[in-house]
Amino acid sequence: MKNALAAAAVLAAGLIALPAAAETTLRITLQLPIKSHLGQNLEAFEKEVEAASNGELQVEIYPAAQLYKDSEVPQAVGSGAIEMGVASITQFAGTIPAVDIFYVPFMFTSEEMVRKAVARDSPIRSSLDEAILGTGTRVLWWQAYGGAIMLSKDAPLKSPTDIKNKKVRVFGKTLGEFVTATGGVPVMTSGSEQYIAYQRGTVDAGMTGVSGVKSRKLWQVMDHITVTNHADVEFLVLVNEKFWQGLSPEHREILTAAARKVEDDLRNTMAKIESDAFEAAKAEGMGIYVPTDAEMAAWREASAPVIEQYKAAAGDLGAKLIMEAEKLQK
After folding, report:
1. pLDDT tens across 194-206, in order?
2. What is the DSSP string of 79-132?
3. Neighbour tally for 114: CB within 10 Å
4. Could you tell me the domains of the chain?
5. pTM for this entry
6. Chain-centre distance for alpha carbon 166
């Protein structure tokens, strides 16, 4: 009796904790620095999820390619080596060539077109999400990265004649075909390795989103930005499908709601993110060059064959996506 009374007294005093609800940890690999807008987007997701789940879901972010390079993420997530990861959509082009619709030169020529293409009920997005799910990986949300710009050292790349014979950093097959069509030599380089590639002269020029210039401080190794916006750069936040199905319906609902919120928040602030990045680059001494109408026409004409290469590689799904994209152009 004395022991029972003593135990009751200890419990009442809060000295014995009741068993806590089991935690589920979601590790996310990211190739960009945590201070990049993609990293900040993941941190916002972390806060939403942990608050809504009362700590039952814990999110751990591993930025700056600590665990996997961009090209390794689809396999790592699909195999279950890690629960979640962020990768450029073009990293699926090896198995699903149609994903490169966003990197076909000048396919999406305005922010309005991009928004329509990536809307959750869009035939383009829903078709790609479904195709990616077949790899064992679920797309939880899309992360906007902005338009693709060109980087160079001694002078801006005003027209295709300026890129002739130059080695150009690319991060996808179709972007490589764009470089080849316009006279350059594509060099596949992951985002986490491009600073060193520019610094060492492994490449003469490159392409990225302007926000990457800011987050990676590329003004330290490159001098000029040419605003071609020849492609729309999209990243995907992925989750292993087997892991996803093992979660409770309540936890899946929490993750889905958080993903939708942070996706919309990022998409709605992307224009300001890009504007701030251009200003930061300019403040650091980079030249910002906007091609003339005639120069843009030359870029479009030189890169026109890429769309036929895409159609040949992307099959029926690619043909469907081209048709849907052309509807948005009208």
Report:
1. 999 999 999 999 9
2. HTSSSEEEEEGGGGTTT-GGGGGGGSTTS--SHHHHHHHHSTT-HHHHHHHHHH
3. 21
4. 23-328 (3.40.190.170)
5. 0.90
6. 26
